[in-house]
């Protein structure tokens, strides 16, 4: 696995062995960012189930200003930290070592891009998007990228968020919501 494009493009990323995390493939990661960007002119990104941190690092590589990564698994946290250090710009990243719901209760900034790839997708995504909205954590015009198994059907709208695009890549489905 590597950073696909941007400032850190081509740099290798570490991943956690085993089934604890499911890293987004380079192909899917490239497709996601081509749909939503592919490059950004600043902004805040939240990677709520960071895994290896590759999606948030890709967003910073492509022009986002700051990233908050949330990961509860201790072994995955070490991988995220190593990948952040690879960027040589650690001040642009904040790793919150806790479960997603607890992090949402502590966050106060509004995010322009939210990345959601939770272990139990359908139930978690709907609840999480509503929590983000109710907590004032979504900036005007924010985009929410959800990565799930291709069998997961997400609703056309969740709160003020509307489904904008949806594509299947092998066994993965990417659903993108934007804020009305």
Which features characterize this protein?
180 residues, Rossmann fold, 29% helix
Q: How is this structure best summarized?
A:
The chain has 180 residues and is of the alpha/beta class. It has helices spanning 26-36, 54-61, 74-86, 100-106, 121-134, and strands at residues 44-47, 66-70, 93-96, 111-116, 138-149, 157-158, 161-169, 172-179. Helices cover 29% and strands 28% of the residues.
Give a structural overview.
- Its EC number is 2.1.1.171.
- It holds the Pfam family Cons_hypoth95.
- Keywords: Methyltransferase, Transferase.
- It is an enzyme of class 2 (transferase).
- InterPro entries: DNA_methylase_N6_adenine_CS, RNA_MeTrfase_RsmD, SAM-dependent_MTases_sf.
- The protein is α/β, with parallel strands linked by helices and 180 residues long.
- It has one domain (26-179): Rossmann fold (3-Layer(aba) Sandwich), CATH 3.40.50.150.
- It has five helices and eight strands; from the N terminus they run αβαβαβαβαββββ.
- It has an eight-stranded mixed beta sheet.
- A hairpin with a 2-residue loop joins strand 6 and strand 7.
- The protein starts with 25 loop residues before the first helix and ends with a strand.
- The model has no long low-confidence stretch (mean pLDDT 92).
């Amino acid at each position: 696995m590597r950073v696909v494009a941007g400032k850190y493009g081509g740099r290798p990323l570490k991943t956690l062995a085993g089934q604890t995390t499911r890293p987004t493939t380079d192909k899917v990661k490239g497709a996601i960012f081509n749909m939503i960007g592919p490059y950004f002119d600043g902004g805040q990104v939240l990677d709520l189930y960071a895994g290896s941190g590759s999606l948030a690092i890709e967003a910073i590589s492509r022009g986002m200003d700051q990233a908050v990564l949330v990961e509860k698994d201790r072994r995955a946290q070490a991988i995220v930290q190593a990948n952040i250090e690879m960027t040589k710009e650690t001040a642009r990243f904040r790793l919150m070592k806790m479960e997603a719901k607890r992090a949402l209760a502590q966050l106060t900034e509004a995010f322009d891009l939210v990345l959601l790839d939770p272990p139990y997708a359908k139930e978690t995504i709907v609840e999480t998007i509503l929590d983000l909205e109710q907590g004032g954590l979504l900036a005007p015009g924010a985009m929410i990228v959800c990565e799930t198994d291709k069998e997961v059907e997400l609703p056309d709208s969740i709160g003020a968020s509307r489904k904008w695009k949806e594509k299947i890549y092998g066994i993965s489905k990417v659903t993108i919501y934007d804020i009305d």
